[in-house]
Here is the input.
Amino acid sequence: MGKPKVGIFGITGCGGCQLEILNLEDQLLDLINAVDIVHFTEAITEFSDDYEVALIEGSITTEHDVERIEKIGSIAKIVVAVGSCAVNGGLNCLKNLYGTEKANALVYGDKKEWIDTIDVKPVDAYIQVDHYVRGCPPNRLEIVDVVRSLLVGRNPEIPNYPVCIECKRNGNTCVYELGKTCLGPISRAGCNSRCPNSVSGCEACRGVIDDPNVNAQKDLLAEHGLSVKDIMEQFNLYNACKGKTIEQT
Amino acid sequence: MLYKILDKNHHKEFLSNLVANVKMVGPKKKDDSCHDFTSIKDVDEIDTAYQKTTIPPAKKILFPSTENLVRFRLGETIESEGLLESSETVLFGINAWDIAGMNFLDRFFSTDFADENYIAKRKALTVIGIDTEPTETNFAHYMDSEYVIEGFDLYFTDLGDRFFVRIATAKGNALLDRFAHIKDIEENDLKDFNKYMNVYRKKFKLEINMKNFLDNFENIYDKKGVWEELAEKCYSCGSCNLVCPTCFCFNVKDDINLDLKTGQKMREWDSCMIPEYGLVAGEHNFRPSKENRLKQRYRCKLITYKEKYGKNSCVGCGRCIEACLAKINIAEDINAIKKEVNV
Here is the structure.
C-alpha cells in the first residue's frame, strides 16, 4: 500500500490552522514521509483533485465556498475538520449574529452586490466530517495525532473534558484567583490549557463539553462582575454557530 | 524516633549546604495566590511561610501528571522497554497533611500491585517536613493529619529560637551529620515542643462531625436530596481530583510516533468526576450522572480506605474546597449529612 494522499484545504478563515501544520518544524519531515501531501492551499503551488484524506480549515461563508466544499466532500474518503471555523463556524459566526446582509453592507458599502456572502456554517453543515480537530488555532500536536491515528487505523482520542483538567495537570493557579474570568470549566480541553498557562482566561475556542453546566458558569461570571451582555459576548465569541449557542445548550 | 535541636543561627547554613550538594525541591512563591514546589538553586528562593500550593508537592514528584511508562518498537515481534525515571531528591518544606497524603499514595502504589515507577521515585526521595499555617478550609486535625509520625526522614518544628528536629530514618540522620550543626535535646526542649503542638493544633478552626457522617452516609446514599443539590452546582471539571494529594487515578494511552514503528505507553492524571471515567466498551457508563460521581468521590475519600487501610484517603488539606469554582465544600457536606437524615 502506498502512502495515503492528503489534501490540505483552506476555505474561509485566517489561514492560521494551515500555518500550524507548517509550524510543526520538528515533525514536518516525518509527516511528509508518512503521507503524500498532494494539495496544500497555503504551502504548495500545485493543485490536485486526487486525494483520500482532506484536512479542511475555515468555515463556509460564500456560495463559492459551498461549491468547493462539496467538491472536496465528493472526492475525499476521510474528512477532517481542522480548527474552530471548520469545526463549529468559529469567529466567523459573529457575522450571523450581527446579520449577514447588514454586515455585508457595513464592510463593502456600495460594492456589496459583488460579494455572494451567506450565513456562516461549519464544514459538517454541507459534507460528512469524520474527525474534528478543535481550537483556534488547533493544537498542532493534535493534528499529528489524528494523522497517526488514521494511519494505524484507530480513532483519535480527542478529549471531551473541560480545560480545568489540563490546567491542573499543568499546575496552574486558577485564573479566577488572579482576578480574571475563564470559560475553562465548560470548555473542551485538548489545547493543553494554552490560554490559562499564560494567565489568560479560556474563551472556549474548542467549543463546549457535551454536558456543560451553563447556569453555574453564568452565575460564576456574574459573581466576577460581568454583565449579562458581557457574558453573552464571551459565550458567543467562538460558539455562535452550530444551530445552538452555549446559551441554548 | 530520635530528637535533636538545630539552633536558628545554623538553619540557613544547613539549607545552603543542602542546596549546594543535593538536588532539592522546596516551596517558592509563585504568584499573589500560591506557592509552588520547584527545584531550588539558591537558598534565598525558599519561602517556608506558605499556605497554599495548588498541586501537592509529593504527588507532583512521585506521581507526575504525565509520565512515560514503556517505550516500544513494532516489527516482526514487539520490543518493549520499561521506563523508570528517578533521581535522588530532597523534598524540603512539605507539611504534615501533605506527608499524610504521600503516606496514603505510598500505601496505594505498593499494595496489591507494586507500581515500579512510583516506587523508584519514592526510594530516591528524602523528605524533610515543616509545619505551615493551615488555610481556612483546612480540617487536617479531624483527619489525623495535622501531625505525622512517619513518612518523613526529618521534621523541623520551629520553637522560636531553635528547631526541634524529629529524625525518623537513618537517611535523615546521615543528612544532619553531614550538613548541620545539631545538638542533643534537654528536658525543656521536649516541654516546649509539646507546648508548641498545643498552640499549633488550635490554629485549625474548621469543625466537622465525622461521626455523624459515618453513621448516616449509607442511609442517605440512595436518597436524592443532597446529591441532586450538589449535582446542580458541579461542573464535572475534575479540579477537586487533580489537586487532591491522594487522588491516584490515571488513564493509560499508547502514543505512536509518525514513523509508525516506535512509540510509548504513557499515563496521565484522570478524574472520576468526568463522564468518560466510567465509560467502558459498548458505550456503557457505570456512572453516567453527576450524582453518581459525586457520591462515589465522597465514599472514596471518606469511607472506602477507612475500611481497607484503616485510614481515610482524605487528609483534610482543603485544596478541593479552594479549587471548586462551584463552591462544593466537602467539610460543609460532611456536616450537612446529619441535617439530611433528619428531614
